[in-house]
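Review box. Two proteins, two foldings.
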Amino acid sequence: MEPTPNIVVELLGTVRRRAGLARVPIRADTLGQALLQVQAQCPGLTDLCRPDGRPQPHVLVNINGLQWVGEPDHVLRPGDVVLVMHADAGG
C-alpha cells in the first residue's frame, strides 16, 4: 500500500513541461527526499537533483511561496507545497 502523501511538489515552467505533469503528491520529511522521489517518478527530470537530494544549480526550490531553500535536510511539514522551477524562469 502506498503511503499517504503529506506534501505536494508543484512543477513550474520548463520543469513542468519536461515532467509532463504539474503536481506530484508525495510523502517526504525533507527536501532531499522530496526531490529524489520526484526525480524517480518523472523520467524527464533525471537532472533535477544530485544523489544527496541537493537541487542542481539550474533548479530553484521554494516552500509555500515564502522561502527559497536548497539544503537537502530542510525539514518539510505536512501540507507544504514545494515549488520547483529552472533558475532561468524569471523575467
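Next protein.
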Amino acid sequence: MDDAAKRTVIRVRLDKAHDDLAMAHVLLHAGGWRAAVNRAYYTVFHVASAALLWLDVERTKHSAVQASFNQVLVKPGLVETEYSQVYKMARDWREEQDYSDTARALDEPMATQIVNDAERFVARLERYLREVGAIE
C-alpha cells in the first residue's frame, strides 16, 4: 500500500477512534460504565491499528495488535511505555466485563480512568503520526 492509501485508511481508523471516544464519554456520563470501557478499549485499538499501519504492520486479532504495538512502537522507544499499560488495562477490563460472569465490579472512578487514559492514548499516537508525516 502506498503512503497516500495508508493515509486514507489511517484517517478512517482515527475517525473510528474519535467516534468511539465520544461515545465512551456519553456512556460514562450516563452511568453506563461497562459500555464506556468497551468503547474506550475500541478507541485504543483503532488508533493503535492506525499507527501500526504507517509502519506497514497490519493485524486483525486483538492480541496481535496489542503485541505489535508493544514490539514495534513501545520497545524501540517511539512511544512511551506508559501507553503499553494503558492499552493492557483497557483491554483487560473490556474483556473481563464483556465475557466474564464473575468480573470484578466496575465503578465510576475506574471507568473514568480508562476513558481518560484512552483520550491520552489518542492524543499521544496522533502526535506520533503527525511527527512521522502520516497525518497533518
